[in-house]
Design a protein that fits this description.
The complex is a heterodimer of chains A (about 110) and B (about 120). Chain A is an all-beta fold. Chain A is about 0% helix and about 45% strand. The chains are: A mainly beta (about 110), B mainly beta (about 120).
Amino acid sequence: QSALTQPPSVSGSPGQSVTISCTGTSSDVGSYDRVSWYQQPPGTAPKLMIYEVSLRPSGVPDRFSGSKSANTASLTISGLQAEDEADYYCSSYTSSSSWVFGGGTKLTVL
Amino acid sequence: QLHLQETGPGLVKPSETLSLTCTVSGGSFSSSDYYRGWIRQPPGEGLEWIGSISYGGSTYYNPSLKSRVTISVHTSRNEFSLRLTSVTAADTAVYYCARKTYGGAFDIWGQGTMVTVSS
């Protein structure tokens, strides 16, 4: 199985909005609403930010939102803050009854 | 508050077997709503799903690792394990255990343990 495709890096200034894309295929992102997003600051374990495409776990700010269109899922962070600087990974269920992650996107807050 | 902790050797020789245990404390997730999973991250690289096991013991593995991986749950169900056979340098990574919801989200993670494959 191939990793989902994410841009290697994105950046934005405090207060701005950024969107990170996650492109898969009709065998994963396109067929299932089981897309999750994870935030990983350097040297720490990943933290769940979005699940089932657009749902936020308790405690995650509503500045984080998720969506999906066809084979591409997106994570949008609005009102960017310095603490949002981290690596972000998407994940999806696949038709092979397995799970696949994206390659990761480094978010830099300018 | 649920806490997961990975334990095991930090150094494994090539061709040998990597064995890790994940201990769950502060509660349990003995429910059909949750799976137990392993994910790894090579140094400087992205996350890779290794496999998952359901409450009932059904296992699901990454096709690229399937021939070498075994995930099992201990009788107490507060521990689960990962075995990866015939390791090479490419298996050097931080290994995480995690709780996975039925919907597929890894919602609770261990801190991770670094495993280096080297002679």
